[in-house]
Amino acid sequence: MTQLQPGAASAATPSSATSRTRKATRTREATARPGESGAFLDVRNLSVKFPTDDGLVSAVNGMDFSLERGQTLGIVGESGSGKSVTSQALMGLLKGTSAQVTGQAMFQGKDLVTLPESGMRQLRGRNIGMIFQDPLSALHPFYTVGHQIAEAYLVHNNASKKQARAAAVDMLGRVGIPSPEQRFDEYPHHFSGGMRQRAMIAMALICEPELLIADEPTTALDVTVQAQILDLMAELQQETNSALILITHDLGVVAEVCDSVLVMYGGQCVESGPVDEIFYDTRHPYTLGLLKSMPTLNGSSGKLNPIPGQPPSLLDLPKGCIFSARCEYAALAGDGVCAGTRPELVVEDGHGKRCHLSGPQILTIRNTR
Amino acid sequence: MDTQAILQVENLQKHFPIKGGLFSPQGSKTVKAVDGVSFSLGRGQTLGLVGESGCGKSTTGRMIARLMDPTGGRIMIDGVDISKLGGRDLYNFRRKVQMIFQDPFASLNPRQTVGTAIAAPMVVQKITPTGGLKNRVKELLEQVGLKPEHYNRFPHEFSGGQRQRVGIARAISLNPSVIVCDEPVSALDVSVQAQVVNLLQEIQRDTGVSYIFIAHDLSVVRHISHEVAVMYLGKIVEKGSRDELFREPRHPYTKALLSAVPQPDPKAARQQQKIRLRGDLPSPANPPSGCVFRTRCPLFGTLDAEQRELCINHIPAPASAAAPACHHSGLAAAALAGVQ
């Protein structure tokens, strides 16, 4: 990981072939298991609704999950599945808007849903950091990058400007920006996409928050830079032992960095569990469909198997299972069961699924694909 | 010369002059967005053009569709050089090459019904299909998996995947020989992306159209392409048949690119040795001397002084089917063999 150390990027490193054994040694026994109490972050029945002229949009419908320090939780789903809204609700970014947020999100003895804005301001940046998808629109074009990073430090620490500058320069170095002292005084437009994302990470991490929420942090980046950023985030997370929520639509990214996964569809969690189980012991037809529809670098190059149809309208969610209209296997559960009643999220051994089909039925589906 | 080739690109160049300030001399510097690109495309085949943003892949595609004028080189379609066509000839040429754009939200006029949008190329080209324009549009709508009754709807009534289908219907309306697809599925969700990729393949099977498929997603490119060309800083660094290139990449950049693609396989991800490139793409206004990739090359650090001198001062020969554009491709294969 030589290229990620301060100043190393300017020096010639002998080889950049690196091993990822670090991943293998990480603890991965604890998983996001709904129902546990006293978790580091514990989200219960979180729902978000937006009133619009056309009616109430149910963006998030009863999310349950928990997370421990040092763990990475991946939230995957397609556009409109509610993954970003979930993170915005946790960060309190929906306060003061028309959004109706209900449920509970316990973090350090405080409920993030009911906490007033003043309390939220204490937590944001200090205890909870956030990395946004598009670093160009998340950075202020009129201020230097260093100023924006130091600002976060000044707000939360009783520090002088000089100390804040030193902390920001140090942080820029830690995220692998060469000549950080000089880069401190440059503006966002001087930075490339990957550099900006590094600066965003520096800003989010300068106060060493215990919880980091990254909303599609690498979607706007090229694959080679994405790989650098993912490595960097994993490395910094290990250093600070923080909890990370990674929101993404890319199952490949999830496989690389997450310990546990939550698959979202239509504002609901349809499957959750440890990363290996989600990929090798898939229990929900939607997750199966996602995995089947992805072209890979080593799979067969026959016809792709898309999930038929379109995601449901959040204005008018079906009465039964939200996925039933696109599910090829709805008939297996019996007449009208899937379309008629909405399944509960059933958790067995830390692996949850929201589906009427029985375990053996899922197994048959998986084996015939 | 390949007689089967519908499209042949030879030494294609696009150099943008950098406009100096008031006091600096004009036209003294150029950005070499595309610098000596050559490839050929067979009938009914797909050429995947991959690379990071800023590598010149979209510029190449746009020049082939003549949305941009090349500053050098030739583009032969059916044996005719179209790179300098103008007026009537250019107008007639438009029937042969069409384009599908990345953003299905930006590439359709929000005030135009999809029927009008799909009919537009035929109207411009003054083509009256048998059975009338409207019927032809309805046929096209069905061909791309939409319904004839969608004729009078507006783009905002469609999802991203459906809009991309409208864009495809518009592109195939003139029965072109080549369609340049510029990141056609990048803006779509995985499940919908697969639908569109399947549709493109179906259309190719039915009509024999050739595609230039520009994408940064290597998994999709591997799926749809017959031939693949990898671009870096305006040059093709490696090209070859899909199977060879993905099985045995010979240029260190191709290797690094493949290694960086996250795969939906957690166990493999934990075990794999990864090649990580350092830093970002250098500025195309000020590219490195010699081999443009040397500043980020994972191999460069392992070379001795004499070998490095070659990389620094000599531009490698352009990539061909036989060899990548690398002075040390033999070494690259050996040194990075164990690394996925």
Automatic annotation (TrEMBL), chain B:
Record keywords, A-Z: ATP-binding, Nucleotide-binding, Transport
Highest taxon of source: Bacteria
SMART domains noted in UniProt: AAA
Domain ABC transporter: 7-258
GO molecular function: ATP binding; ATP hydrolysis activity
GO BP terms, alphabetized: peptide transport; transmembrane transport
SUPFAM superfamilies found in the cross-reference section: P-loop containing nucleoside triphosphate hydrolases
A Pfam family annotated for this UniProt entry: oligo_HPY
Family: Belongs to the ABC transporter superfamily.
Protein name stated in the entry: Dipeptide ABC transporter ATP-binding protein
Phylogenetic lineage: Bacteria, Bacillati, Actinomycetota, Actinomycetes, Micrococcales
